[in-house]
Amino acid sequence: MKYPSDSPKSICILRLSAIGDVCNCVAAVQAMQRKWPEATITWIIGKVEAMLLKDLPGVEFVIFDKSAGRQGYKDLKAALNGQKFDVLLQMQVALRASLASLCIKAKFKVGFDKVRAKEGHWLFVNRRIAKQHQAHVLDGFMAFAEVIGVTDTTPTWNMPLPREDDEWAKARFKNDKRTLVISPAASKAERNWHAEGYAAIADHAAKKGWDVILCGGPTELEKSLGEEIISHCKSTPKNMIGETSLKQLLGMVKHADIVLAPDTGPAHMAVAMGTHVIGLYAHSNPGRTGPYFSREYVVSVYDHHIVSQQQRPLNLVKWGKRAKGEKLMNDITVKAVRDKFETIILDKCLN
Q: Assuming Cys at both sites, which of 22, 65, 147, 155 could form a disulfide with 72, CB separation 3.0 to 4.6 Å?
């Protein structure tokens, strides 16, 4: 049996979620396209994630609706209509994704290495990527590209952004000012920094002559945090939380000079658009999930908390182990975030 790297003609990607992960995955997919430009690529993806990536060049998307239960699997099988791929790259270990893989016919089904093959993932694949040591999520995705012969794994992105969304976003920025975009909320409240801290950084940026814009999704969690931030501000940042589509949000982070965010999708969207990011971390290891090209600008209390909770040296803690606690983010200081802001300004000549 040939190995998957032997000139694949049809490639299926299985990565359903989440926004940050699919943004990282795009870099791997586009590395495959550079190596195998004639290969057809089909990506099985979640509904929300498809809204962001739907017009990615050279990729056919098939939406898997996880909320549809058994019908979702039937719909996926019907959408693929008996297609058989040279290789399936199963880039998600969740059991839901593994069950979805049963609807996909492929000669080779490539999964994660044994260390990362959770929830019976290994039962659904017949090839594995190489074992990696303390890899970033993006590097894990690139390992799938290597399986099919990709040698240039330097991450680059060509993210689709329709002109109307780009122009809509650009119109919200002032031409004569630098702009800090704050995307304050993650999907879980415990990953969010406190409103007083965000407000202090917004006020600091405003004092330096920067424009400040708050961005985020339409959930009640995000809206309420945005309103609380505004209530603590002495300056007047523009609150656009809940007022953008995903494409417009992509445009907002593109035109920002700096994005400030916790462990959430817009941080990775910003990296994909070439924008500098200050990431705020306490629960997850920023070495694994931090904004890829801005990891040096992460403010993290993760190491302290995970060592305390695991009662062992950091080098003996399982890579990617999450720290637990509702108030961990409160240990991030305003001074630490402000110092990173000033460091980026100096490093990137943003005066």
A: 65
